[in-house]
Amino acid sequence: MKLYGSTTSPYVRRIRLYLALNNVSVNDQQFVNLDVFSETGRAQLIKDNPTLKVPYLVDDQQSVFDSRVIFRYLAQKFDQPTISWHEENLLTLIDAANDSFVTLFLLRRSGIDSKEDVLFFNLQNERVAILVEQLNVAITKGDFQQWHYPSICLFCLLDWANLRELYPFEKYEALMTFMENVKAKPELAEQLSETDPRN
Length: 199
Ligand SMILES: N[C@@H](CCC(=O)N[C@@H](CS)C(=O)NCC(=O)O)C(=O)O
What we know:
single chain; alpha+beta; Glutaredoxin; Glutathione S-transferase Yfyf (Class Pi), Chain A, domain 2; 4-stranded mixed sheet; 8 helices; 4 strands; binds glutathione
């Protein structure tokens, strides 16, 4: 089994941490690090995955695109239960926020100021504001208490968006505490460090 991705992508990191949760240690994972913006990285993507996005997985002859589908594939492979409809909805909130944050990040990398009053920018900014608030409330209501796939996805999103300074998360106490609690878990220390986008 080979996982293709980059070391900075929050979508890739969630799969690496989900593999670790299923006792495939980060060191044992067959991880192919692609720079999706380099010439060789793009050539590989064009050959393997027409969405031109990471992560994707190749297991025997089976290619699997998109983190959500890779999660389903791995859960089935490892005989793990699927997540509830409520958790699916939480995952949809996380994915929507993550997609808009990636868009805002790529706009910044393209030299475009997404704070301007323009429909496309306003839609992204409105979405992230509502979703960050909703995810903060979800934590206060008791979601994300266990280290399972939805928590992994939330952590990867927050840690990456925080690193990229995409949002003032310090105003959201529950989100900050969630992040601190995850980072303080000794049993996760090694895998978090191995998959840290800063390294
Ligand atoms: N829905 C996809 C999103 C993956 C995604 O957006 N990956 C980013 C990296 S964080 C990417 O490959 N971006 C390349 C691009 O947008 O051209 C998933 O869940 O796997």
